[in-house]
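Inputs:
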Amino acid sequence: SVNPDLASERQTASFSVEKLTVLLDGGVEQTRRRRAVVEAIESDPVFSRENQYFQTQNERYEAAVRKGVHLQKKMHEMGWTENGPEYKYIYRALSGDVAFLLHRVFMRSISVLGSDKQIAKWIPLATQHKLIGSYAQTELGHGTYLQGLETTAVFDTATQEFILNTPKISAMKWWPGDMGRSATHTVVFAQLYIHGKCYGIHPFIVQIRSLQDHSLCPGITAGDIGPKMNFEHIDNGYLLLKNVHIPRENMLSKFCEVRPDGTYVRQGSQKINYFTMTTVRISLISDEVLTPLMKACTIAIRYSAVRRQSKLKPGEQEAKILDYQTQQEKLLPQLAAAYAFHFINDYLQELLNRGYREVHRKNFDMLPELHALSSGFKAVITQCCTAGVEVCLRACGGHGYSLLSGLPSLYTKILASCIYEGENTILLLQTARFLIKCFMAASAGQPVPPSVTYLAAVKPGKCPARNKLDFLSPDIYTEAYQHVAVRLISSTAAKLQDLIQSGIKKHDAWNQCTVQLVQAAKAHCHYITVKNFAETVEKLETKAGIQKIMKHLCDLFALHGIFSNTGAFLHDGYTSASQMDMVTASYLDLLAVIRKDAVPLVDAFDFTDKNLNSALGSYDGQVYQRLYEWAQKSPTNQMSPAYERYLKPLLHNTLSKL
Amino acid sequence: SVNPDLASERQTASFSVEKLTVLLDGGVEQTRRRRAVVEAIESDPVFSRENQYFQTQNERYEAAVRKGVHLQKKMHEMGWTENGPEYKYIYRALSGDVAFLLHRVFMRSISVLGSDKQIAKWIPLATQHKLIGSYAQTELGHGTYLQGLETTAVFDTATQEFILNTPKISAMKWWPGDMGRSATHTVVFAQLYIHGKCYGIHPFIVQIRSLQDHSLCPGITAGDIGPKMNFEHIDNGYLLLKNVHIPRENMLSKFCEVRPDGTYVRQGSQKINYFTMTTVRISLISDEVLTPLMKACTIAIRYSAVRRQSKLKPGEQEAKILDYQTQQEKLLPQLAAAYAFHFINDYLQELLNRGYREVHRKNFDMLPELHALSSGFKAVITQCCTAGVEVCLRACGGHGYSLLSGLPSLYTKILASCIYEGENTILLLQTARFLIKCFMAASAGQPVPPSVTYLAAVKPGKCPARNKLDFLSPDIYTEAYQHVAVRLISSTAAKLQDLIQSGIKKHDAWNQCTVQLVQAAKAHCHYITVKNFAETVEKLETKAGIQKIMKHLCDLFALHGIFSNTGAFLHDGYTSASQMDMVTASYLDLLAVIRKDAVPLVDAFDFTDKNLNSALGSYDGQVYQRLYEWAQKSPTNQMSPAYERYLKPLLHNTLSKL
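Outputs:
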């Protein structure tokens, strides 16, 4: 039975939840297929995550391997394939709680970086799981800066082998997933040396464990890097190489080859390498970043509709905490952000698909823009969604802090997305570099990529809003965001030039501008997000109330961004103080409007209870029963293991020395 | 041997680290005593936290009990007492990783709320550990709003007993520490009923487990609430009461008594109850909030001095990440905040001591101000320090995400401080209520408490700064902070009045202002913090370079606050856009200045390696060796437990169905 406090929230929905779900999925067929996958996965007890919050790192790892193996069977049974339309739903249904994800990266590396002959040899082996692959790039002392990697691969013409070494402790490979305990092979990135000359970083296939008994191969030291904030199910590993010999054929050689006599040959364009990183950054947004935020919103908003605490009106029942303005101000902007980023993800996916087609025709012109956008959006979205999950956790008070709420695990996992696949600050500075370059080009009248043409149309001006309702006009706020982005990019470009002209060296000048460059890159991404949200809303069907509620969310997302960062909009007087008061008024009004549809808006994300895995967020809102039943199953619910040895002697005053 | 990259940072310190340590401790004698305690604790293997990051919840709990018991012996041996000067150092040296903290709360409750007779009976029993106490206030459905508690205590004149019940699942006690598995007794807060009439919440001593064999007493259901984001060492518990009979004498009756015939007698002032909460909120700041931030700063800054990544100048060695402006902008404001809050903590302690003396003389006039300040500062400091620890964690990239860095545990633990002892938003609204009241009083020419007299002196004015150096003047920035606080308080007071005058009911009007009231309360606390930091710096000795570096930190703290919240200062034109550019310039300049002393400034916190318990933060900076050695000890470093059952059949293609 559904908690009446939650049921009542659903009766007053202003729109069709099912239609919104279909919109988010991209069509009726997609919704049907997703639900079929979820059903197949969740009805299979091997994939259960029921005990997850009680398990040790070892148990989590073992379960992930079991699921990884079982998934192969399941896919065979169901007729699902790695490239089929179901795959993304499988991952979402499993909440990523499965081993061998790096095996896929191993295969992709070979497909992209390997010669046809290498692909023909290794891909079938990997597909049939005659080996388990990993991907060893990051070192203990080296992450961001690939050129700094210290692992070496020295070519020996005599034996036609490469000899691999991690010459110092900081050169040790560190972090690769699936490598600590599972993988038999890995792609090692190392500095290539031929006849004493260094040719830079290249990828090599290295076997690390025996296919017979899983023992470590000669010269290999490998193991697990130990406990982390999350990802207990993954055996992130370390790898030391001591004079490990591999055949010449194991250097992945689509782009570079070492001939038997030691001649180094570079072939084809390496630009495609950049493109791989771009693809990875965009692809992680949906599964690793948006889904957790959507789950956190679902949990926190459903909980806030059934949790009653304190009184809003004297003499009445205690109020739902969702009715407090401060609670709305915490949660509803996160909900709006989840939708905003869902739509920008669609935009990025489309751009990426276009990029694919162009690259396929050997046209690499889109790559700089794609790289800049994927870097900036990866940083901005991971940062905002991580902060959003934390807000949701804290908004649930003590119960949010219990692992059983699901929120701590969502937080500790999404946090990693700010670090992996490019640390966010570094990525934002890459976006900033692109923006500064484009700004200079635009200022000089040269053509620039589509997403930055707005930089050419710099105009001073003032915000034309005259009352608080004007701030519900997408033109008004989109223009304001654009203005701020242009101002921050142009003023930082000017500072950079001033510093250089004053005699400061270019790299020092750049470093002295980086705090502001990061701000400029963020402003650019926020502008694009707001603009895209507004454009998406405009294109929606007007029926079923969906356009209306999406318009409210778009307004909220935009106004929340202004309200939380008023200085950027006030700085040069584009927005006046009284206009800012209008923004505040409109923003606070919107909270009360969206609050009415808050539960239907999270219902539309369509998470099952098993997928949420949360005592606070279940569809029926029976929070307290859930918490109590669940806690009773905890392995800590047994007689105190400290009783006989410590508590009893203490209480009976028989501790020797007391 | 110290990593040369770290050693070089220490050679150029602009001040005496030892002198700064002594300043932080409050005197030479305190430093000596603290170090003696640390030495005694850390040389005792029972208190080791070496394996903490590898332990399960059960193991952590058992270790905490072992340490709790051992601590009794140790204190006896060393001649330390609970009220002695060593006690606070003991807790810090143990990093709070010890059981029976609620036993102390149990004792304090009895001392404060019990009659002399009750104190005489229970305190000796507790002191001698003939029982283990806990404190059961929070319920599954009730935290913040005490009046809403649902547990009942019905007085039965026939038997002269109270009969206690948790009549619904939401009435179950939930969260009390030490109660899940250890405690034999607890103080239960329940609605008192006599002859069918409810007299509100009262405290009752209830035995929950047998002193003989630790089995649960009749009518008691109790256990552990399961896994949490941290605090694995504490057995936070649940408690169901079903017709539990306790004697009339077990109601703590300093303030209220139930006579044998059922007559209810209220005696003395209950104002003192408020004071207890105030005391707890202030006392948690140092150990639970400042220490973690100081540790996080120590870890992140030492690591940033030895981590080299990417190049600042082409052709040179990779740069220390501490040399990047963006890294400085992440870490140095957190360091400044640690110092700012250390000094405001001194201020609050002094105020509290004065409060104690006044209350002792039955003068309760200071209580409202103390309550408002302790609430607001508890919220602001826990919030800023939690955010600060997270910044430190993320600033260390992947290695910060390893539990071995120590940072994840610091974060997941400090996060709880935003929730316990009053949820932060609720607390800020209490401060706001006080501020609005004082503002109205001050506007009407009535006297107000010392910390808010500035509200009486509202003047419009403009910031007089003319160049970026002017913003290094404490008068300039303190005035700016004061101006913002007054503006936010007065404008919210005006909005509130307008709403009420427009016919909106008082409680609705209040709810519609809460987002802005929270901002106003924060602005008040920030102003007091900046003012207090500036005044503290002024009073410091000018020798040994300490005043100079503290002045830099004070400037940084103040300017960072403006830089991160420019809108508040720009809004009414108090600060102009060009002045804001001066703030930015001064702020960024300061980063480079303080960066030079960053390592000495964290060295002054004087944490031992054992106390930091971090592979990244050790005094010698041998980060990579430490991570590798430590990871090798992880229980995950054994042959894959999934090999025989899953990996081998997969690799050998002998899985039945594949």
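Remarks. Chain B touches chain A through 135 residues (CB under 8 Å). Chain B has a mean pLDDT of 96.
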